Amino acid sequence: MRRAQGYGLTTMDGKVIEEEDSFTCVHCNTIVFVKPKQDPAEMGGVCRLCSGLSPAYICQHCEGLGTCDPFEKKLLRMEARGKLMKAVGI
Ligand SMILES: [Zn+2]
Ligand SMILES: [Zn+2]
Questions:
Q1: How much is the pTM?
Q2: Taking a C-beta distance cutoff of 8 angstroms, is the pair 61, 30 a contact?
Q3: How far apart are CA 24 and CA 47, in angstroms?
Q4: Among the four residues 1, 14, 18, 26, which has the most C-beta atoms within 10 Å?
């Protein structure tokens, strides 16, 4: 699975233009589409805690929650629960 932001668009003349018109929410992994030339932050927000060298965009839902809960941590929690259930024998 690709986590790269944006994708190439092929125009009518067969030219490929790179447009950053989608991003993956770092909190819930939702793909948010952004209109060309629109600021991705307007479609949701930027999590300052998740941002490193590049801004970490989040969807409107996660922006509304106002908390930082990265998707990777959610996965780790799910994995931990799986291991726990195995350990308990469920
Ligand atoms: Zn989200
Ligand atoms: Zn965050």
A1: 0.67
A2: yes
A3: 12
A4: 26
pLDDT value of position 1? 47
| pLDDT tens, position by position, 11-41 | 666 665 555 588 999 999 999 988 878 888 8
User: Is residue 35 within 8 Å of 23, Cβ to Cβ?
Assistant: no
Mean pLDDT of the chain: 84
Instruction: Give 5 Cα–ligand 1 centroid separation in angstroms.
Output: 15
Question: What's the gap in Å between 8 CA and the centre of ligand 1?
Answer: 23
What ligand is nearest to the CA atom of residue 59? 1
